């Protein structure tokens, strides 16, 4: 039987927003293979809280494969094997939601939760979160990196196997009050489309063909500076095209600033106005204009004073 641990990181609160996956295979009492991949989620809406956890920003995944392309390599092992995950309902939920989001059938999956295993084998008043259990067991890893988390999950299962005397990881169900959970297969669902996604490109193209001022006036972003000051990044229509102007000292002195770069890259880490959809609209305006009116990111990055 194939036994492998899995961990997902997500872009926002949606289960179908996976932006990274890590896997670790177990055989002969040890971890024999490790893989990790970045994933482009269906929409590039990254919640600041999620970014603070895993450090992945939209610019990191914009050119990466989508969920089906990444997971195609691993689905055979996942469907015929035993999956381990720490807080497994979350990671299995992401796996199933990710397939459903692209209209793909959801196969049956069988899993053990290493959080439940840790609570039985390594109980502690401090809790049994992945980082806490790994620290108590001396497992060295970089928390919230999907590949590292999958490795730590696998090592916790192996430690539990050794502590209980189970013959293998699957054998933990014979020495603990624990059962393998099998999720039934699910039907293919209509492919998920982010709200308004179907018209984003059309709006961008039409905005570039006509006077873009009304569109530009709506794209304003409040951002947090390195010292905590609040600045405004605004998209403006100029005779030569669209320009981003920032109210920070660098922007006022006609120098390129990191706040403009962040908006162009889709990095919402310091976005305090929380208009995340507008960040993607900005990207579409930059990338979707027709050839005669195309605005390259390098030009948009040039901050022009009013």
Automatic annotation (TrEMBL):
Protein keywords: Exonuclease, Hydrolase, Metal-binding, Nuclease, Zinc, Zinc-finger
PROSITE patterns, per database record: ZF_SWIM (PS50966)
Domain SWIM-type: start-end pairs: 231-268
Single biological process term from Gene Ontology: DNA metabolic process
CDD domains the UniProt entry points to: DNA_pol_III_epsilon_like
UniProt cross-references to Gene3D superfamilies, sorted A to Z: Ribonuclease H-like superfamily/Ribonuclease H
Domain of life the protein comes from: Bacteria
Signal sequence residues: none
Record flagged with keyword Translocase: no
GO cellular component: cytosol
Nucleotidyltransferase listed as a keyword: no
Any Pfam family matching the protein: RNase_T
GO MF annotation list: 3'-5' exonuclease activity; nucleic acid binding; zinc ion binding
Cross-referenced InterPro entries: Ribonucl_H, RNaseH-like_sf, RNaseH_sf, Znf_SWIM
PANTHER family for the chain: DNA POLYMERASE III SUBUNIT EPSILON, EXONUCLEASE
Protein name, per record: 3'-5' exonuclease
């Amino acid at each position: 039987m194939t036994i492998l641990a899995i961990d997902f990181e997500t872009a926002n609160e949606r289960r179908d927003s996976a932006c990274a996956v890590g896997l670790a295979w177990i055989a002969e009492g040890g971890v024999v293979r490790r893989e990790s991949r970045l994933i482009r989620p269906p929409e590039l809406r990254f919640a600041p809280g999620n970014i603070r956890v895993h450090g992945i920003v939209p610019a990191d995944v914009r050119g990466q494969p989508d969920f089906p392309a990444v997971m195609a390599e691993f689905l055979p092992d996942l469907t015929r094997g035993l999956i381990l995950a720490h807080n497994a309902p979350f990671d299995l939920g992401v796996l199933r939601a990710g397939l459903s989001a692209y209209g793909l059938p959801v196969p049956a999956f069988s899993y053990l939760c290493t959080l439940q295993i840790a609570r039985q084998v390594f109980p502690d008043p401090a809790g049994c979160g992945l980082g806490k259990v790994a620290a108590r067991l001396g497992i060295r890893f970089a928390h919230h990196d999907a590949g590292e988390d999958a490795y730590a999950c696998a090592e916790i299962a192996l430690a539990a196997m050794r502590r209980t005397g189970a013959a293998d990881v699957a054998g933990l169900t014979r020495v603990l009050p624990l059962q393998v959970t099998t999720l039934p297969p699910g039907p293919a669902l209509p492919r998920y489309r982010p709200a308004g996604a179907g018209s984003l490109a059309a709006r961008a193209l039409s905005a570039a063909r006509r006077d873009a001022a009304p569109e530009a006036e709506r794209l304003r972003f409040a951002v947090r500076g390195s010292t905590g000051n609040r600045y405004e990044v605004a998209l403006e229509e100029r005779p030569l095209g669209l320009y981003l102007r920032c109210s920070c000292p660098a922007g006022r002195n006609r120098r390129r600033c990191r706040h403009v770069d962040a908006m162009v890259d889709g990095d919402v880490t310091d976005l305090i106005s929380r208009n995340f959809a507008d960040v993607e609209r900005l990207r579409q305006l930059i990338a979707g204009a027709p050839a005669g009116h195309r605005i390259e990111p390098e030009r948009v990055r040039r901050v022009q004073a009013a």
